[in-house]
Write a structure and sequence with these properties.
This protein is an all-alpha fold. The protein contains 10 helices and no strands. The chain has helices spanning 15-28, 33-38, 42-56, 65-78, 82-96, 101-107, 116-131, 137-144, 150-173, 179-183. The radius of gyration is 17 Å and the shape is globular.
Length: 191
């Protein structure tokens, strides 16, 4: 997990965080390390996951779960965040049912086999991540060509920004992915 910062013990966490983590454990079969690392600061953990859920689970979004995870993997690869590339790469492989896509995106979305819409999304996320101060009307127009509007651009920008923060905290804390993430979505799930 991390040598520098001790992670929270599940038994020491406030009830609401403990319930959230146990629900994740029930779903995944293990406790993702990010919950215990962020759990060491409960108020920050709550704030992060409320914003995460507001973006990633937002009803009415024109972005699919796979497209949102593609944003995460793309920017996390650019930011050299092992934890987020591996963990969200696993989620992407599962939802997209593609064992290769996450690795390809983490290296370069330019060479990954994407649809034109997916490429436009990853291009915009990259612009937000690497040169947000240079965004202009052309960046938005490229999204509009693929049926994406300004609200979708907001979603893409917000996801890229949130994971820019997450990448930096994960890197600074030395957070390591759970071993289980490495195989998820690469082979058929055991029942």
């Amino acid at each position: 997990m991390s040598d520098r910062y001790p992670v929270a013990e599940l038994t020491d966490l406030p009830e609401d965080l403990r319930e959230r983590i146990l629900a994740e454990q029930e779903k995944a079969g293990f406790v993702p390390a990010v919950f215990l690392m962020f759990g060491r600061r409960p108020a920050e953990s709550r704030a992060f996951f409320v914003y995460h859920d507001a973006l990633m689970d937002r009803e009415g979004s024109n972005l699919s779960k796979a497209e949102k995870e593609m944003i995460v993997v793309t920017v996390s690869g650019q930011n050299n965040c092992l934890f987020c590339v591996v963990a969200h790469g696993a989620i992407l492989r599962v939802v997209k049912k593609d064992p290769y896509i996450a690795d390809q995106l983490a290296v370069s979305h330019h060479t990954a086999p994407l649809t034109p819409r997916e490429r436009a999304i990853c291009d915009f996320a990259t612009a937000v991540n690497l040169r947000s101060d240079e965004l202009d009307d052309d960046d938005f127009a490229a999204l509009h060509e693929h049926g994406l509007d300004d609200e979708d651009a907001w979603d893409i920008a917000s996801i890229a920004a949130l994971f820019g923060l997450s990448n930096r905290v994960a890197n600074a804390t030395g957070m390591r992915p759970n071993p289980e993430f490495y195989l998820m979505g690469r082979t058929p799930r055991q029942k």
